[in-house]
Structure formats: structure tokens, C-alpha cells
Amino acid sequence: MTSRDGMTSSGGMTSSGGAPSPGGTSFPGGTSVSRLSVYSGTCAADGLAGGTPHLHTASTEAYVVVGGRGALQTLDVRGPRETELVPGSTVWFTPGTIHRAVNHDGLEVVVVMQNAGLPEAGDAVMTFPPDVVGDPVRYREAATLPAGGSREETERAVARRRDLAVEGFLRLAEAAAAGDLEPLRRLYADAVALVRPNVGRWRELWERNVAEQARRTAAVLDALEGGDAAHLAGSALMESPPEERWGMCGHLRAHDVTRPTVR
């Protein structure tokens, strides 16, 4: 994330008049938002086009479909499922839900993520085979895209990463469909082991973004109850321009909503 103008020394946002914004710097609800164009390349394992199966360990994710057609393949302790995605479809899934976006025809999605900052800090774990997910060094090697490579090199790396995760996902789904949840539970345990060293830093991000917004709302409600309108003078318009990224599910136009500018 790059710094932007308008930040105070404490990380808060001020309007041009110097009064604090009643909502702070956070996007509504402490969420983040991005536009996703789901990958169109086909997977070697099953011939389907789409993204890399993964789960989030701490954050709920939502899809609002704005174009094209596709499907969302999911897996949790209730087994594998597939949900059709068409314009207007709105679905969300909680931590632990393995999800794979499948692109049938130009699938475009607005993604809303809980806990702005945590997904970007790495709360996702991809469904590589167990010998990879269970080894932090091998997992990082498989998950990391090359830095500074050409577009063609990055596309090949994205495809390799996706194919490896689909291989693991298909094994998990087959086992779960047969009533065997032990591979899924092992993945959950390995996922926690992978992210556990980061939790202290994540807690700081959560306190600064999500918890702080809840505290601000509580203060606003106290002010309203007391008939105090002073906080309304700190109103502001904020903006975060899109940043192009290679995502797990597709090409992302993401927004660093934790560091907006004031207009």
C-alpha cells in the first residue's frame, strides 16, 4: 500500500477545514471493495475457466455480479456446492468456505471484503495439495508470483498456481462428497498454522480500521442522543483510485480504502 496525501500523524483523515470526518478513513462498515474480471484461461485438471480456489481464515467475502455468466463452486463441512452467477447475483461466504469462481462468459464481479486490510495482508490460503499446504516454505514458493516479470511470465505463473490449487480442491471435494471430511479438516489446521504468525499484525490493522470505525459510530450515537450536531461539521468526501493487480480469482481493480484522499 502506498501513502496518500491527507493522512494525519495518527492515521486519521481530516477534511479541508481541519475537522475530523465522522466516519474516519474506513470504507463503510470497515470493508474493502474491488472490481474483479474472472480469469478466462482454462484449468488443466477439469477444463473449466476461472480462478484459484482458496479460503479466508478471518474475513467474509461477498460477490455482486455485474456482468457475464459463471458459477461459484464452494466447499465446507456440508460438502461441495455450485451456485449460478448471473448479473444481479449477490452471494457471500464466511471464513473457511473454499470458493472457486468459474467463468462461463465474461464474468465481472464487484467484491466486498470484510475487515479491510486483513485480506490484503494475507488471510487467504490456497487449496494446494496437503504436502504443499503443510510446508510453509513450499507453500510460499507455490503461492508467490514472480516480481518484475513480463506479463506473459506472470500469466504462466498465475496458471500454474491455479492448476495446483484446483488439483487440491478437486481432491477435497471428492473426499467430502464421499463423506470423508478429514482432508478438509487437515487443510483447516494447516491454514491456521500458516497464518498464525501474522495474527498480531492483523489485530493492529483490525483495531485501526474496523474496531475504530465501530467506536466512532458509538460516539456519534452518543452525540445524537445528546442533541450534539458538532460531528456533522466534519463531513467529507473521500476517494480511492483503482490499482491494477493480479488476484487469485482474476484481474483486480482494487482500492486502498484504508488510505483515501479527501475531495
UniProtKB/TrEMBL annotation:
What CDD domains does the database record attribute to this sequence?
cupin_RmlC-like
InterPro entries per UniProt: Cupin_2, NTF2-like_dom_sf, RmlC-like_jellyroll, RmlC_Cupin_sf
Q: Where is the Cupin type-2 domain?
A: 50-112
- Which intervals of the chain are annotated as region Disordered? 1-30
SUPFAM superfamilies, A to Z: NTF2-like, RmlC-like cupins
* Any Pfam family: Cupin_2
**What name does UniProt use for this protein?**
Cupin domain-containing protein
| Organism of this sequence | Nonomuraea rhodomycinica
Lineage of the organism: Bacteria, Bacillati, Actinomycetota, Actinomycetes, Streptosporangiales
